[in-house]
Amino acid sequence: MIYFDNAATGGVKPDCVLTAVAAAIKAGANPGRSGHKLSLACLERVYACRKILCEFFGGYSYDRVVFTKNCTEALNIAILGVLERFAAEGATVVTTVAEHNSVLRPLEFLKNKGLKVQYAPLDGNGNIDVDALSKLVTQNTKAAVVTLASNVTGCSPSVKDVRKVIPQDCLLICDGAQACGHITIDMKKSGIDALAVAGHKGMLGIQGSGALLFSERFNPDPVTFGGTGSESYNLQMPDFYPDRLESGTDSYPAIVSLGEGTLYLKDRLSEHAAAIEDMTKTLIYGLSQIRGVKLYSKVNPFGIVAFSLENMQSEMAAYNLSENFSVCVRGGLHCAPLMHKALESEGLVRASVSAFNTPSECQTFLQAVKELTSV
Amino acid sequence: MIYFDNAATGGVKPDCVLTAVAAAIKAGANPGRSGHKLSLACLERVYACRKILCEFFGGYSYDRVVFTKNCTEALNIAILGVLERFAAEGATVVTTVAEHNSVLRPLEFLKNKGLKVQYAPLDGNGNIDVDALSKLVTQNTKAAVVTLASNVTGCSPSVKDVRKVIPQDCLLICDGAQACGHITIDMKKSGIDALAVAGHKGMLGIQGSGALLFSERFNPDPVTFGGTGSESYNLQMPDFYPDRLESGTDSYPAIVSLGEGTLYLKDRLSEHAAAIEDMTKTLIYGLSQIRGVKLYSKVNPFGIVAFSLENMQSEMAAYNLSENFSVCVRGGLHCAPLMHKALESEGLVRASVSAFNTPSECQTFLQAVKELTSV
């Protein structure tokens, strides 16, 4: 079995992550809820994980790292928790056609509340067109929401360029679902106000993990309400972070997995990225040699290679690769409908590799595609 | 170390849960996102878990079982997703002073949007006063939100009695955080429209698991928005359940843990409840014999025993029990501020046992309290 669906969920977790999760499940106690030894030990570990993430991403302060169940929840807190205020003023947000439904759907929801949403197109090379984005910006533009890497093709704008073309007081929210754990991200240096992190992909944590990191001027209102273990007498959510945004029992094992995954990556990021880039190069070159294959990706450190086959729908190709060649890839729209419109595609096959895949798996995969197209 | 904080997070998970979670983490794939073998196997397992929960709780249909990260998220979906509509009409919701902040805080948030919230008091025995609740009900009452067991004292109203005193068309939302896994709950028989489930307490799953089950007439709008793996072309959330309420990657390991925990409990529920009741009896009798202890709990199947000490704050007592006697209990308000007002308490010590605790641990605990009070 070859697992090339790492952009959905990373297939291999390092042993240190697995061990830490098993221990965290057995630790049992509830961080931040009780004052006994076990609970306090869990709470300290959670704060250590906030610190690890804050350092890894050049974040602003560790109390501005909130843990979420996935990247989608993080994006919802950033978008609903902040942009809803702008909606009431009829303000504008710029974003891109490369966004995932985790950005598109909350933004479209806020349209009903008065938010104006403008979409930057792709340029001729299939990249996010930062020039075109700059032309959408007006005095009424309060925020930009931009993915750091398309989950469909792996194309990736320069976040510094994006920051340059939007006003200083315009908030910059970045979807890091595919980019986190693959490239160096420094929020402060890049002027990113909010970074949404998926824990279970490049960051090597388990499903159920994710985070939102944000700047001092980015102050989300809560999207959900509940117990925080703090200010229990208060019928409103506390007004300090992280508590304001974390209601109910956090998933301690998931948080620990994200912390451990980050520590593991810390000294291996460029090594992983190089291995992944090499494999995308192999895949892209190999696919370019197969008749009937149309490529939509360029070499990238995110491990994403998208393509279509002449005369075979993407879902059918993915099904065939799974059934007949034991290769796991994804077909379809990948929850990014505007990207497909922009690419004039009705669905793509996406092979996505991690640093735990091998060049030899890439060759086997290429052979499978060759056989599939020659049927 | 004696762990008597099971009402916060269950301290022991059965081996079958631990094994299933470890396998689920290694399975890796993303349920409902791709069409390959691994992903489909995960999707099937998730649906099997929906079915297991639906059967266990006498639910309405398995597509009306949505997985959440905790009970708080489930309550938020039920309250914000449905009662916000009533808020716009200025309708009334009845609830009780025994509710947790996971109910109080979302309800208080909706007050700003026009919802009227009325609180039923406790009766003379420290139970939720269902008669008083019935008197709060008017033609304008659209829903009742009632805990199935107080997380502070373990008091528990008869849900059938609650159902009787509210009109047929009044929605009944129940917080099952402390009750699920401890007593038999049959949603259809009891006329419960929405049941919020914590996965990591009585249900024996891991942190990060939870669920909302709901009736055919209970149709929550989404609280968060994102990819669902379905209708990817649609910029709105799909209008069918469970997809409408589950955005972003679900935590497959957590869902599996909840399914496995439920299966484990299926034939052991009454056995567990009896063991727990016995231990609460032991604790309550023992504490009643210690000078300076004031009890707030009666024998119950939820394992909750709340008490105060003369001349020692609850947090200090909990700290002392942890530091000097290696006993883990919780002090403070337990995120239920109105309950403390009703009990005229400024904080309580809560010992909470599970079926994995032992009568001998209860004796050691009683000895510790005795020593603590005699200092």
What topology, given as strand order, has the largest sheet of chain A?
2-8-7-6-5-3-4
Mind telling me the CATH superfamily name of the largest domain in chain A? Type I PLP-dependent aspartate aminotransferase-like (Major domain)
Main sheet: strands, sense, barrel of chain A: 7 strands, mixed
What is the overall number of helices of chain A? 12
CATH topology of the largest domain in chain A: Aspartate Aminotransferase, domain 2
Instruction: Note the beta-strand portion of chain A.
Output: 5-15%
Low-confidence stretches of chain A: none
What does this entry look like structurally?
The structure is a homodimer of 375-residue chains. Chain A has helices at 15-27, 37-56, 71-88, 101-111, 130-136, 159-165, 187-190, 252-266, 269-288, 314-325, 337-343, 359-373, and strands spanning 2-3, 65-68, 92-96, 116-120, 141-147, 171-175, 194-198, 210-214, 293-295, 304-309, 327-328, 349-352. By secondary structure, chain A is an alpha/beta fold. Chain A has two domains: 2-10 and 268-373, Aspartate Aminotransferase, domain 1 (Alpha-Beta Complex), CATH 3.90.1150; 15-266, 3-Layer(aba) Sandwich (Aspartate Aminotransferase, domain 2), CATH 3.40.640. In chain A, the strands form three sheets. A seven-stranded mixed beta sheet of chain A has the order 2-8-7-6-5-3-4, sandwiched between helices. Chain A is globular. Chains A and B meet through α1, α2, α3, α4 and α8 of A and α1, α2, α3, α4 and α8 of B.
